[in-house]
Amino acid sequence: MGTPIIYGTPFSTYVRSVRIAFEEKPAKYELVDVSVIGGEQKQPAHLARNPFGTVPAFEHDGLKLYETSPIIRYVDQVCPGPALTPADPRERTRMNQIISIVDYHGYTSIIGQIVVQRLFTAITNAPTDMSIVEAGKPRATLVLDEIQRIMGDGKFLAGSQMSLADLYVVPVLHYLMLTPEKSLLESHAKLMRWWGDMNARPTVKGTAPQLG
After folding, report:
1. CATH fold for the domain made of 89-205
2. Which of 57, 131, 158, 178 has the smallest number of CB atoms closer than 10 Å to its CB?
3. Residue spans of alpha helices (H) in 25-182
4. Is the pTM of this model over 0.90?
């Protein structure tokens, strides 16, 4: 079996989710850098892997995928090691719902509106638009409210074991915690406890992006 290849920048939350999945197994993989800041995801070489021009893209033994959800589910199914999908139907449904919340609501508000304006404008020498930050805060708060509600009293987001939901949320909150809007998370006690536990894991520490 060949070494799986992830195409994408280490700065991407979605790329990091896939990397954590491999690290949790653990299983070997290769990360091929595609610079989003440099616009490489929109160039022909990457568009041949993902016609939508986003990261990550993925390749393994002739199988080519894009979009994080199918990639990490594939990794979980084909790589030996601890299962990252709960066997219990209710916990599995919690996992799937949290993944959908991140895809449809969390990424747009937390990363697209708050983090991009607070952190990545500095990298690209663009001005910060606080009206965008403020516009993102209500939806970001609702996302955090719902994730905390769904997780219940379990140690992890979907229940008693780590799941793909945890891998989805960690990279997003990592960036949120680097902004003044980290106060949105600090008001969620259960999520803060979970956040501390997750950041103690070597797989999470080892994949943390280096911003400078």
Report:
1. Glutathione S-transferase Yfyf (Class Pi); Chain A, domain 2 (1.20.1050)
2. 131
3. 44-47, 68-78, 89-101, 121-123, 130-151, 164-176
4. yes
